[in-house]
Each structure stands twice: as structure tokens, then as C-alpha cells.
Write a sequence for this structure.
């Protein structure tokens, strides 16, 4: 892409309506992959969830429209999103190989976050703004616009071919290349349908939103993998405190205890009293409150 002169000299009209064989091949690979991805997300929806299903649908729409042709130029541009995917797969393999929290997984996590941030958030957001600008220009193109240099047939020049490096006269080569890019849209002065622009841009917004959301989740996941576990002694103390709270020991109330039944003013809480009476719910609640108060005082002391 960096050394492709054909792409470098394209204007917004070629980027929107043009079509090249290289761009079409990349879009064909991407469309096939996301078609497979869509059926996997549908089949195992309970595993992958709504997020990956939305990603599969939006990506399939974006790359399929390139064959209309429509913004075929941006097919190779947006497939660079996937440069971060190998590091994500490595992260999964480290977990399966019981290398969670290892140094190799740490280095891979750093590369994963860096590549995801650069390829999807920085590069992807910038290129999304460019495609928005091109679509806006195509939506508001004037019907009087003409592109004679793009649709005029190549002239016949009686020049010897051996004088040119490619065997084709330079003027003829340039005109033929431009006409070839626009050959599937012979009338680029027409406005693009609004539904087409909205469908493409809407899918692009979904993909970018998911990228920002996933980046935050990835940071949380990497931090969780390498967060230091609590000290064993501290964890044991916390467990003992929880056990103490669950237990209800026989604490003496008013200085009297009778076979596990707390006696208060001649009556046993939770059982028959010394005078044969039974303490009701109010007495039980009062005794429980006293037990809690004594427990707190014993812990403080």
C-alpha cells in the first residue's frame, strides 16, 4: 500500500467508485472469512455473544459492498485491523497451556494492547474519518461534474513500444489505467444512494464502537492475569472471621446460662422458662441484640 502509485494518485471519486484487482482480491478473502465467522457466531451464540455477532454482520456488510463497487479502495485499509488478532490468539493459547501470568504472556499482552491501539483505534479511526469525507462528497456531487480523463477511451498513438519501459506508451498507459479503475462505474457523476452510504457508515460505526469497548475489556483482562494474589496469612484471617460471624455461641446473658439456653429474668430464651413460661419473639430479639453487642465488645478487647 505504501508503494502503490495507483492508490496514491486516486482522488475521492476513484476511492468511492473505483475498482482494482488487488483490492477486490483482498475483499474476497475478507468476505469469505467473515461469512464463515458469521455462521460460527450464530451456531455458538451462547459462547461468543451478541458483540461478536454484531462484528461479524457489520464486517461482512462492509467488505461485501466493495464488489458493487463501492469504496473498494478502503478494503485493504480496514483489513489492517486484523494485525492485532495473532497476539489475541497467543494470549488464549498461553491460558490453555497453563502459562497464565507467565512472562511470555506478559510480553504478548503488551504487544496485543499496542497493536490493537495502533491498528484499530488510531489507524482505524483516522481512516474512518476519511471514508466519511469521501462518502459525503459522493452524496453531494453535482450532476454537472464530468470526468473526461477517466472515461475517455485510450487514444491510439503510433509510437514504437520499445521506447517505453512497459512496452506501452506513457500517455496511453496512464489513460488506460484510469479508465480501468472506473470501468465498472462509467457515470461517476451520479450521486450514490443514501441507503448505501448509511448502511456502510452505520456498519463502520458499529465496528469502531466495538473496538473501543473491547480495548477497555482487554486492559481489564491483562491486569487480572497479572494482579498479585492476596497474602495467605491475610486470606486465612479473613476466612476465620467469616466463620466466627456464622457461628452463634452460647454467650451468658445477665450472668446466667442453662443448658445452652440463655436465661434472663427467670425465663429461658428459645425454650421453657424456669417458671414454666415461654419467651416470645420480643425476648428472642432482645437476647440476639445482646449477643451481638457482647461479641463486638469481645473483639475490641
Amino acid at each position: 500500500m505504501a508503494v502503490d502509485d495507483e492508490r496514491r494518485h486516486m482522488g475521492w471519486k476513484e476511492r468511492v467508485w473505483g475498482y482494482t484487482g488487488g483490492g477486490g482480491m483482498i475483499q474476497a478473502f475478507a468476505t469469505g472469512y467473515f461469512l464463515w465467522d458469521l455462521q460460527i457466531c450464530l451456531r455458538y451464540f451462547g459462547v461468543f455473544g451478541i458483540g461478536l455477532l454484531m462484528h461479524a454482520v457489520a464486517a461482512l456488510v462492509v467488505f461485501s459492498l466493495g464488489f458493487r463497487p463501492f469504496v473498494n479502495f478502503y478494503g485493504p485499509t480496514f483489513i489492517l485491523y486484523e494485525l492485532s488478532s495473532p497476539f489475541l490468539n497467543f494470549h488464549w493459547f498461553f491460558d490453555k497451556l497453563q502459562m497464565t501470568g507467565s512472562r511470555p504472556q506478559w510480553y504478548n499482552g503488551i504487544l496485543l494492547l499496542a497493536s490493537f491501539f495502533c491498528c484499530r483505534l488510531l489507524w482505524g479511526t483516522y481512516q474512518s474519518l476519511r471514508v466519511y469525507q469521501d462518502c459525503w462528497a459522493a452524496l453531494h456531487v453535482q450532476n454537472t461534474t464530468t470526468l473526461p480523463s477517466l472515461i475517455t477511451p485510450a487514444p491510439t498513438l503510433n509510437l514504437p513500444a520499445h521506447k517505453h519501459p512497459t512496452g506501452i506508451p506513457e500517455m496511453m498507459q496512464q489513460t488506460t489505467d484510469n479508465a480501468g479503475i472506473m470501468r465498472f462505474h462509467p457515470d461517476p457523476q451520479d450521486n450514490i444512494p443514501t441507503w448505501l452510504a448509511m448502511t456502510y457508515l452505520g456498519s463502520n460505526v458499529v465496528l469502531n464502537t466495538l473496538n473501543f469497548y473491547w480495548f477497555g475489556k482487554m486492559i481489564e483482562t491483562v491486569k487480572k492475569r497479572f494482579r498479585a494474589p492476596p497474602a495467605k496469612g491475610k486470606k486465612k484471617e479473613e476466612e476465620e472471621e467469616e466463620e466466627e460471624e456464622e457461628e452463634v455461641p452460647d454467650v451468658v446473658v445477665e450472668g446466667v446460662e442453662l443448658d445452652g439456653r440463655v436465661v434472663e429474668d427467670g425465663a429461658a430464651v428459645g425454650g421453657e422458662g424456669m417458671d414454666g413460661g415461654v419467651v416470645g419473639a420480643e425476648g428472642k430479639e432482645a437476647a440476639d441484640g445482646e449477643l451481638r453487642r457482647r461479641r463486638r465488645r469481645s473483639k475490641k478487647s
Observations:
- The longest strand covers residues 261-264.
